[in-house]
Design a protein that fits this description.
The protein is an alpha/beta fold. The protein has one domain (about 40-55, about 60-300): Metallo-dependent phosphatases (Purple Acid Phosphatase, chain A, domain 2, 4-Layer Sandwich), CATH 3.60.21.10. It has helices spanning about 5-15, 25-30, 60-75, 90-95, 100-110, 125-135, 185, 195-210, 230-235, and strands at about 35-40, 80-85, 115, 140, 145, 160-165, 165-175, 190, 215-220, 245, 255-260, 265-270, 280-285, 295, 300. Strand 1 (about 35-40), helix 3 (about 60-75) and strand 2 form a beta-alpha-beta unit. The chain is globular and about 50 Å long. The two termini are about 20 Å apart. Mean pLDDT is about 90; it is low at about 1-25.
């Protein structure tokens, strides 16, 4: 996508990027950098068709999202498509198909990875396992222990992707299930501290896998009035994560937000509401040394 200098500087003012505002031509900057485009969704909740009425009339829908994703892939060379959970539940399509249609459509759109939200357990472990087996993309979570469940072996802690010279590490974390999901639906799934699990995985991806970009797919929620673990808390208490793609709280961020991690370094958080109304986008620009990177992003309506 062509990004004008005017729009670029506007995004700087909104605090959406790690780039420092300066008097330089953006086109020249972009030309000298390697670009990786991250597209993402969260809390789609089985919204297969666009809204027919109400506040979101004409927005959303799998066909329109697929068309937008296809268009961006035609414009960009290195693209990752990710989802931050709650793929299931919300329309009769889920009640009838129990997630099968959702995963078939995600396969057709060539999602690269997704994490698991609390509503993805709503049809029970057997249904989730069935869809995980059919998925052409990995389900990622590093703080749920599925060792004593039928999902053991069907969820990975992380996945790496090579985009040109850039190695990208992606992992997932999920919200505590007890109290949100009936116990019989998640069985003996064990919830571990997402901050500790995220830090351990981020360290591994940075130090052992030599990833230049580390992305966390989080179904923790953007922020809370209490001290409950959220994306903001995760950002402040960890290091090594470059981007948190959030879900769970249905937070609409037209542009990403930037926070400081535990070392005072910038970290980007983004979340795009619910129901596939928006497609999130964050573009990372890497210098030739692959160590210095900048980010800019803006969500786009699906409709």
């Amino acid at each position: 996508m062509q990004v004008s200098r005017r729009n670029f500087l506007k995004s700087l003012g909104a605090g959406t990027t790690l780039l420092a505002a300066g008097a330089f031509p953006f086109e020249a900057f972009a030309k000298d950098h390697f670009k990786v485009t991250i597209l993402h969704t969260n809390d789609v909740h089985s919204r297969i068709e666009p809204f027919a009425r109400g506040k979101y009339k004409g927005l959303g829908g799998a066909a329109r999202r697929a068309a937008l994703i296809k268009k961006i892939r035609q414009e960009e060379t290195h693209v990752l498509l990710l989802d931050a959970g709650d793929i299931f539940q919300g329309t009769p399509y889920f009640n009838f198909f129990e997630g099968e249609l959702d995963f078939k459509l995600m396969n057709a759109m060539a999602y690269d990875a997704a994490t698991i939200g609390n509503h993805d357990f709503d049809a029970g472990m057997e249904a989730l396992k069935k869809q995980a087996k059919a998925a052409k993309f990995p389900l990622l979570n590093t703080n749920y222990d599925f060792a004593n469940t039928m999902m053991d072996g069907f969820v990975k802690p992380y996945q790496t992707f090579q985009k040109g010279p850039i190695k990208v590490g992606v992992f997932g974390v999920g919200v505590e299930l007890d109290g949100l999901v009936p116990a019989n639906l998640f069985g003996k799934t064990k919830y571990n501290d997402p901050i500790q699990a995220a830090q351990k995985t981020a360290d591994y991806l940075k130090k052992e896998e030599d990833c230049q970009l580390v992305i966390c797919l989080s179904h923790l929620g953007y922020e809370y009035e209490t001290d409950k673990v959220s994306d903001k808390v995760l950002a402040a208490k960890t290091t090594g994560i470059d981007l948190i793609i959030g879900g769970h709280t249905h937070t609409f961020l037209e542009t990403p937000t930037t926070f400081e991690n535990a070392e005072g370094k910038p970290l980007v958080i983004n979340q795009v509401g619910w129901a596939g109304i928006m497609l999130g986008r964050v573009d990372f620009y890497f210098r030739k040394d692959r160590k210095s990177k900048k980010a800019v992003g803006k969500a786009q309506k699906v409709g």
